[in-house]
Amino acid sequence: MSNYVDTVRRPPRTLTVDEQALLLRTTGEHRRGFRDHVIFSIALGTALREHEIAALDVGDVSPDGSRVRVAFQPAAHPAADCFYVYPTVDQGLAPGNHTDFTDTTRMTEFTHGQVARFGAACRVFVPLYRQMTIGTYLAPDVEHARLFDLAFGDVLAAFRYYQAHYDDGRPLVLVGHSQGAQMVERLLQRVFDDDPVMRARLLVAMPIGGDVEVADGSTTGGTFRNIPLCTSAEEPGCVVAFASYLPEGVRHPWPGPPAAGHRTACVNPADVGGSGKKRLSGAAFPTHSSYRDHMPGGDWAATPFIVVKDFYTAWCVDRPDGFRYLAVSPDPPPGDPRKSPIELDSAIWREQLGRVQLGLHILDMQFTQDDLVGLVERKLAALAKRRPGSSSARSDAAR
Known about the structure:
Blueprint: H1 4-9, H2 17-29, H3 31-36, E1 39-41, H4 50-54, E2 58-61, E3 67-70, E4 80-85, H5 105-114, E5 122-127, H6 141-165, E6 172-177, H7 179-192, H8 196-201, E7 202-208, E8 213-215, E9 238-239, E10 244-245, E11 262-264, E12 278-279, E13 283-286, E14 305-308, E15 312-318, E16 324-330, E17 352-353, E18 356-357, H9 364-367, H10 369-386, H11 391-398
Parallel strand pairs: 2-14, 4-5, 4-6, 6-7, 7-9, 10-16
Antiparallel strand pairs: 1-5, 2-3, 8-11, 12-15, 13-14, 15-16, 17-18
């Protein structure tokens, strides 16, 4: 296993298109090979090719309405590793697991849209996994559990592969959305929650749009025994979790009310530990997609993303049944001529899917993206100050 200095000097290179194709063929043909080689390293922030860096540039929409292109700046020497699990991309209505990896377009696009810009703070590792289809969420509990376990087996195998081949001791950031958040929750339970050594390695976990619960009046005691919800932006080893909805909420939110004596986790990335309204520092929206028309700014933006800074306000809302959610609403400063690139009056944000309403689910990580990346950076900065030999640590010791 290489040490940190060696990795900085010889960063893992990005896989070429031909190498990715070979990997996919191998994993598709051999069951054992799939489990052994399921992970592919995008190595964002250390080994991006020039065109890949350009693919993360943003069109920054300023408060005066002007637009400017901002080049993405990957971390030159990433101090953390981010392990990301993408959401449900298989829209098959029949219960089952996704097994066809000949086309990874949707996995790649969600990775690009949700976590690629985390490369400003960390190396990003993304496992392919035999996730559950969307139809599995309507299956009987026993069948759902069986299919979930198979999907999680791939995620766990990928994390073990990462540990064996890439892990050099950097702080760990776990990120997942929707089904990916549930995979991250299970990974935390299996690998981190009862292991003080692994908990010490955890910088922050971000199971966004999942189903994290805590005991009433506590930051633990529900989904996790020992890993708490974050109560400050600088706190390490904690969880940031939320599901976003319009301020009025919906009647049947997913996954529904928590168990008796519990409440749903809601940590506002713009105001960790707070309870008031706070403007989100930057909402980042992809501008083009091969599977979804009319992306924000797609008709005018020359960049793969647009970022709208200090425009949306977010706060946590408590329902009487214990369900908590992150309310998001346009709230531009006085005189700000910008309009929301997302039509939040659309009925889509109130539609019911089966027995539930998902609200702003597909935009959970877009509204909050700059704040989430900023949290990783702030936690890393705080961790560096506490390390032995730092000026802050010497000052604390003197006191």
